[in-house]
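Spend some time on this chain, tokens included, and walk me through the fold:

. . .
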Amino acid sequence: MNSKGNITIKDLPLNERPREKLYSQGVEALSNPELLAIIIRTGNTEDSAIDLARRILSLDESGIAYLADATLEELTQIKGIGQSKACQILAAIEFGKRINRRGALDKIRVSSPQILADLLIQDMRYLSKEYFKIAILDTKNQILKIEDISVGTLNASIVHPRDVFKIAVKKNANSIILIHNHPSGDTTPSNEDISITNRLVECGSLMGIKVLDHIIIGDNNYLSFKEKNLL
């Protein structure tokens, strides 16, 4: 125990220290604070790495989900997190996202909204702003690419048909599926969601690029305009 009375990682029994626990029990046995403590490696004069990790995860009621959309600026405002630790956290989060996306789109045929929702729900459910994307499909309804179109505010995404179909044409889309998230977790479409969907459907019809569906991602759930007969 240090002179201030705080418990450091070295003061913990060996089987409770994050690295030693990982060695003996496997990474799956670690709690979220223990995983984060391994990433940030060290604490400071006031907190051990575990204490600091717990404090970070308690900043928002969403816990670990807070980190999915955190920025360098936000993290460095936390006492005890400098640029080096913030970069370590962001790099680990991005690495996980890239592993999750790697090869996910290869030869995937979208035969139902569930298929596309399953691909995107973990990346989009924790976002604090509305992100609007399109899935670009070939003549067999296989995903060619999923493209970001715009980033909006907490409760609205700003989408212009020009931006949607500029990318769709460039990528030789046969058809597209619209996707955006609701940070509130509620997938109920707003009047604006319905309006922009109808507008994009009309534009797609004129350009020969069919809009097959619009999927709203919520908190581990989704809504399909097609399934709800809104399209």
